[in-house]
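[INFO] parsing input record for FMN-dependent alpha-hydroxy acid dehydrogenase
[DEBUG] input buffer:
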Amino acid sequence: MSDPTSRPERTSPNYDLYQREIFKDGSYGTLPSFSTDPDQLEAVAASKLSERGRLYALSNAGLSLTARTNRAAFAAYQIIPRMLRPTLERDISTTLFGHHIPAPIGFAPVGVNEIYNPEGELAVASVAGELGLPYCLSTASSRSVERVAEANDAGAKAAGRAEGGPRFFQLYLPHNWELAESLLKRAWDNGFDVCIMTLDTDHLAWRHGDVAQANYTFYYGQGNEMGWTDPVFHKYLEEKGIDPKKDPKTAGRAWIDTVWHGKAHSWDDLPRVIKLWKDISGGKPFVLKGIQCVEDALLANRNGCDGIIVSNHAGRQVDGAVASLEMLPEIVDAVGGDMTVMFDSGVRTGADVFKALALGAKAVFIGRLWIYGLAIQGAPGVRHVTKSLLADFDSLMDLAGYRSLGEVSRAALKIRDIARL
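[DEBUG] output buffer:
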């Protein structure tokens, strides 16, 4: 929390000044609407959500062992602060797939945002555009790709930016190649220039709370807007005599059965979908999300992927799986020289972002944090959570003595025995 009048100009935003702004407002009696302490944030969001929304936001696979292991892995790594290293001119900006971004943090793809807030994806895309950070749109979106792109541009315009931040499209590969082509073309036509194919969700894991309440949102007619606004899928519904306005539940089942629902793809499908995206986009990047294994990272590299996201779906898919952070160094060592390695799963604080970057991630994506902000207060909630994380990370870089992302390496960390945590 430095005095903005006594510091040199920076090449990345002074995110840490958000703390100063909050303290100043507080001295005049205006406090933030809610705390960004992760535990308190989750509790407040849970109190605001409907039962179905709460379950969808908070449920993990099985006994939540993977979710807890993710957090234990972060606790196992400890930051080694450096002293007497002037950091006022620090730079936390970076480039990602040719896009200059002000911080190495992006919005992970999360489906069915309207279950958290009526604004749905529009609120999140707007804030991402305002901040110039990467935004990933899920195939399971509750708003069309066209409307989300408009919201992203509107957020940028409101902030005085010429255009929104980078837009990535997260693909659940349909079992209908004509539909896959249509979805990818719509994404490309609306400014989404990186395709991220998620691998770990051909169907939902056994999540006790969701199962007990039959909480499968697509079957209730939510999270299907991407399909219902697609001309290829609309034609399919017409041929089946299904009207999504009159019978959204049947239409929802048709959509999700077409996209995944237990029908897994294989590595043999990968060259075809990569070529499809490359032909549509003129060669733009193709990324795989859900990589946890060095061998799979090597296969992604051999098959021509431009990047991977090391992720275990935040513990929502395989209970008892290895922590994503624990696997990150091995995967970076195997393929980091050939492709862009990114990270998500279990990120809660600026220190978490730092640790993932130190272990080799080029960028870090957050999901549940902004979900909670969205649930509590819509777009202002997403903004507060994200600006707080940016300020937390920026301040940590200052206090720990690191002047740029280039200085953040494994030498900045000491590891404890994760088994003792």
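[INFO] The two ends are 32 Å apart (CA to CA).
[INFO] shutting down worker
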